[in-house]
Amino acid sequence: MSLSLDDVRRIAKLARIAVSDAEVAATQTQLNRIFGLIEEMRAVDTSGIEPMAHAQDVALRLRADAATAVDRREAFQAVAPLVENGLYLVPRVLE
Amino acid sequence: MKWEVVIGLEVHTQLTTQSKIFSPASTAFGAAPNTQTAVVDIALPGALPVMNRAAVDKAIQFGLAIGAKVNRRSVFARKNYFYPDLPKGYQISQFELPVVEGGAITINVDGVDKVINLTRAHLEEDAGKSVHEDFHGHSGIDLNRAGTPLLEIVSEPEMRSAAEAVAYAKALYSLVTWIGICDGNMQEGSFRCDVNVSVRPFGQAEFGTRREIKNLNSFKFIEQAVHAEVRYQIELIEDGGKVQQATVLFNPDTGETRSMRSKEDAHDYRYFPDPDLPPLVIGEDWIERVRSELPELPAAMQARFVSQYGIPAYDASTLTSSKALAGFFEATVAAGADAKLASNWIMGDVSATLNREEKGIEASPVSAVALASLIKRVMDNTINNKTAKDVLKKMWESGATDPSVADAIIERDGLKQESDTGAIEAIVDAVLAANPKAIEEYRSGKEKALNALVGQVMKGSGGKANPAMALELLKKKVG
Question: Which of B206, B384, B402, B406 is deepest in the core (most CB within 10 A)?
Fold first, then answer.
């Protein structure tokens, strides 16, 4: 599998990464090399092997349902760039 | 051309836990902004999520209640997207291996049962809230809701009308509130529906292209939005257009759906297993404990009401629409009321008054035992049905939790039904004397002519005459 320059531009847009026209060709080469590596790995016979979900063979730790956290808004918001009425302010989002 | 509508639902139910799914911050609604956030919820670097056992417990309860497969091993994944109310830049959800798979819910539309299969239900965290009022060109972010546990319940695309979609949403709502995993507060966003809608020519096997209506938080909106969307899609196709896959919003003010983003700009969520969370492992013993603690479910209770109390299926279905209502009915019968009468009163005057006052059955000022004591007075002919309605109104106004209240009101206001033949006879005579025409009609074969006279006898007795006795006396005297 190999990607066209248009594929690269589209993937960049979906991933919200700004890739300039000057960088597109280099990115295409790099991505295609990665696909080559993936092809190599896919060639390995993995039938009968259960996929791993985690690098360590452990089960998820669970905690009791208790609301023990104290309100630390003041400390948290002391390092926020902009706050008002207890809200964090961010550049306006429109939908 | 005849069109067939195809609908599937994704419902986000907020789970009734005290604390968040991955942090010990409170999930209580309505606190001052950002006062219920822990380091995990605001995504401070290095903060690690620790799973809330109660959220898993509730997911298992749901899985068992719909007869689904509860996966002994399920995996949490990161769903990556950018939005300021999602501070981590990803939502922790489940993708390839959800906690619950399969299962089914039975809905009823116009008296016909239909089984709707479910695809899956998975655990995930809620996002925060954006406040779009103008903060000098900025939006405000409140992260109190961020990390609230959600169970996202996904149905197969098996509904074929707006009515079926609403019936499914209601059945699901009734179930999750029944087993107590969700508080059902739709205004506060505890139960939010995304509705996938497509149309296809009748008889065509392939699905049409679907559009997803986001975030509907009332049953009425589901119905209106589906109608609007179906109309839009059919008109578009009949005008030679093609439906483009898209996410849309429903505007209740205009009654229209509006495209939010098309498939072209759709996010690629880049799901991958979350390295912070090893697989969730659920043992047999845990599932068995949850199974043993599940309450009797609505469908089972409905069947039991029909067999145990001999009430019609319609009554049983209405009475089991909520656990509280079903409990009220059973308590009324247990206190000695006839089951069918109890059902009539609860579905009739009691529900009507509660609806008018916008109250739930839990807030009924007349208790089940008090209602039973009133019904018993109808059963033993102390008062007639019409008087009983007035007594109930008085009990409602004064509040009645004690079984003696009905008797006290009947006594105080002298409402006892007049079953003394002599007293009624005098009234009957007077009524007959004043209505020679009705007598003639009756004698010429018009049976109903006397019914109007019963009303006059009732009026003459101040509502206290026994109507059956009045009719009998009328017939005897005329015939």
Answer: B406
**Average confidence (pLDDT) over B460-468:** 79
* B278-296 pLDDT tens trace: 999 999 999 999 999 999 9
- Chain centroid offset of residue B31 CA: 27
pLDDT of residue B105: 95
Over its C-alpha atoms, chain B yields an Rg (Å, rounded) of 29
Chain A CA closest to residue B81: A15
Contact residues, B window 224-283, toward A, CB-based 8 Å cutoff: 260, 267-268, 270, 273, 275, 277-281
For residue B42, the tally of other CB atoms under 10 A from its CB is 24
**End residue of a domain, out of B252, B286, B320:** B286
| Residue A49 phi, psi dihedral angles, 5° rounding | -105, 125
Q: How far apart are CA B473 and CA B157, in angstroms?
A: 63
Smallest CA–CA distance from A56 into chain B, residue = B278
User: Letter for the amino acid at B144?
Assistant: N
Q: Cα(first)–Cα(last) distance of chain B, in Å? A: 64
Four-way CATH pick for A5-42: 1.10.12, 2.60.40, 1.10.20, 3.40.190? 1.10.20
